[in-house]
Amino acid sequence: MLRSNVALTIIVSLLPLASLIFLGMEALGTDWGALFTDETWRDSLFITLYVVGISTFLSLVIGTWLARVVVQKRWRFTSAILRIPMFVPHIAAAYLFWLLFSGGGIGWVEANERNYMTVILTYIWKETPFVFLMMLGTYEQLNRGYVEMAKTLQLSRFDQFKHAEFPFLIKPLLDSTWILIAFVSFAYEIPALLGVTYPKLLGVLAYERLSTGLYLEATEPYAVALIWTCLVGMGVLVSYILTSSIRRRIERGVRR
Amino acid sequence: MIRQILIICLMLIPFFSLFLRIPTVETESVTAMANTVGLTVILSGVNVWLSMTFAWWLLWTESRWRNALEWLVFLPLFIPMLATLFGLYLILAESGLIGTYVGVMISLLVVTLPYSIRLASNGMAVIGRPLLEQARLLPFKRRILFVLFPLFSRTMRTIALFTTVILLSQFALIQLIGAGLIPTVTTELYQSYAGNNRNLALSNTWMLILIPVLIYFLLSVMSRWTVRILKGRLQ
After folding, report:
1. Is residue A103 part of a domain?
2. Residue A199, preceding bond cis, omega within 30 degrees?
3. Domain-located, residue A17
4. Tens-binned pLDDT, residue by residue, of chain B (235 aa)
5. A24, part of any domain
6. What residues of B are in contact with residue A9 (Cβ under 8 Å)?
7. Domain residue ranges in chain B
8. Does A125 touch chain B if contact means CB atoms closer than 8 Å?
9. Is residue A4 classed exposed, middle or buried when 0-12, 13-18 and 19+ CB atoms within 10 A define those classes?
């Protein structure tokens, strides 16, 4: 029973990899020259990088800071409240922000505008609790002795964080960063509801080109999905290789 | 204290928009509701079963493939969801599963399983091998009923909740793989979001938020009740 379940899980986990092979095969007929010079895709790439960069960076910073403060100050109630947005479906979160910012908006932020501020805010609201939970476990298990030693050595606050906390956060931070990038960069529901007709985020443009009757024969969406997955995959690989020695050293230290 | 209140307010502010308008109570499609409930129940059950057994295997295996398989099951987390979806669309089209419940089920399972395994293996790592070692001596059914279920009922509840939230978030996946033939609450609601009827869209948002909350409380009550019965039996 156990073995058949494990085998089934492995087969299901192999499907995303198999899907990449199918993407590659389907993308073979793509006119790559036309794809790279297509202004619509290029603008879409830039706006996607901008949205992903800001929302991922801010979610990571805010989530880590919140985990640190909640553990240090023992804010149990706040910790419970911080988890709530995780249990709101993305599409509902998008609509909540649309309602909040539509019809005049709040200050300079307005729904469906070219700067994608509402999309970024929605992603920060949804993804900060995820980062918070990833970091919370690490902060709860963090050996306070390192921080105390950094204080005894009269290091500045930034240096205390850099030497006594940051090395232990590298692994969960890396995991969270790439999960968020993979998730935010090629999604449909939130940017479709809160975005604008031009430039669209990559996920929205690719999905619409794939599902609209006008483009049903086009292989471009498959090619874009494949390129983007390869870029994310390379990023994951490089970042994990670059940090492997320090992560291994930390893990050995923690085990000791 | 002020900082704490400020953080709580910032997290709760988006919910205020739920009260800005009066939601319209309109009867939604019964098929969509039945599909959503059916998919949620089956998908949560399969996720809990597969993730818990895989996490259990990961905890005890001495296989030299352990690390590679652990990477393999977590790898889909780093693949953009829509890219997986496009590839799955091609695979399922080859197998003639587009527009079928099986096709939608498989794609939803592919999307949710990595998260469930992560939650399950984290939960088992917290309890640790020494405490679970004794449970291995028990027969399979007794082990699950009297040890694993009471110990991991909270993890199972979280897995079911996560699965529900991910399922309710999926419009593109269900629309593409289901070929528009399998309506769920989300695909129906998306039409109202895209339209101009704000009150209807608001009532739909209420529903999307309330479904996970109801499931959470339902599962909490059920697990408490079952654990209490099991404890009674043991006494």
Report:
1. yes
2. yes
3. no
4. 888 899 888 888 888 878 876 766 665 578 888 888 899 999 999 999 999 999 989 888 888 888 888 888 988 889 998 899 999 999 999 999 998 999 999 999 999 999 999 889 888 887 777 777 877 788 878 888 888 888 888 889 889 998 999 999 888 899 989 888 888 888 888 877 777 677 777 888 888 888 888 888 888 888 888 878 877 765 5
5. no
6. 50-51, 53-54, 73, 113, 117
7. 28-234
8. yes
9. exposed
